[in-house]
Amino acid sequence: MSGNSVNIGIDPRTLKHLQSQMDLLQKNAGKSFYEALVKVAFKIKSEAQLRLTGRGHIVSSRLKNSIFVKANKPLNRLDNAQTYSDNKGKSYKSDLSTVQLKPDELAVGTNVEYAAAIEFGSRPHVIEAKNKKVLSNGKNFFGKRVNHPGWSGDSFLYWAMKNVDIEKSVGDDMANDLKFGKFLKQTNVK
After folding, report:
1. Residue 146: φ, ψ to 5°
2. Radius of gyration of the chain (CA)
């Protein structure tokens, strides 16, 4: 087939259009990546809440409802309120004000004082009744002081982070942005 050849070319207008679309993709890749990370952070939050429920750590729902996604940019999501209530209607602030973030970082966590004991466990310690005469678990009364034996912990946040496939989630979200042309201009090239 030495004498037969085919030349395929692209006309200048189509090439210019393709270049402008590629420029838009490059310009918006960071935004797409950040939005994908936000989705991952909320997946981690949801998995941690499910873990707490599934492992029987829900007494007042305070810890579960306190898990919060913090960002430097407003997230404006109903499932990430600055305040929350326990199952008795008492209101708390879910802010992670002590967490310092760089511009495109996110944090998932809680400010509930007993969260670390559930996540990491606790050494043996004494528990004392402060506003009551005796301690109780709702069924039995124990007295003014109790020797707590300690506990090995039951991770919910780290567990959730390990069990959400971050690379796949981010990759899938960014691929969908490309597939459905989220950032591209819809033009007709003739």
Report:
1. -135, 135
2. 26
What 3-state class would DSSP assign to 146?
strand
CA atoms of 32 and 143, how far apart (whole Å): 57
Range 14-25 burial, b when 16+ CB lie within 10 A, else e: eeebeeebeeeb
Closest CA to 68 of 32, 33, 97, 88: 97
Q: Which residues pair with 69 in a beta bridge?
A: 108
C-alpha–C-alpha distance, residues 62 and 85, integer Å: 7
How far is the C-alpha of 105 from the C-alpha of 121, rounded, in Å? 28
* In the block, residue with structure tokens 């994908």: 36
Tens digit of pLDDT at every position of the chain (190 positions):
457 888 888 888 888 888 887 887 788 777 888 888 889 999 999 999 999 999 888 778 889 989 999 998 888 888 888 888 888 888 988 878 888 999 889 999 999 999 999 999 999 988 888 888 888 766 777 788 888 888 899 999 999 999 998 888 887 877 777 666 666 665 554 5
Provide the angle, in degrees to the nearest 10, between the axes of the packed helices 12-54 and 166-179: 140
Torsion sign, CA atoms 178, 180, 183, 184? positive
Q: Which residues pair with 110 in a beta bridge?
A: none
Q: How many CA within 13 A on the CB side of residue 21? A: 15
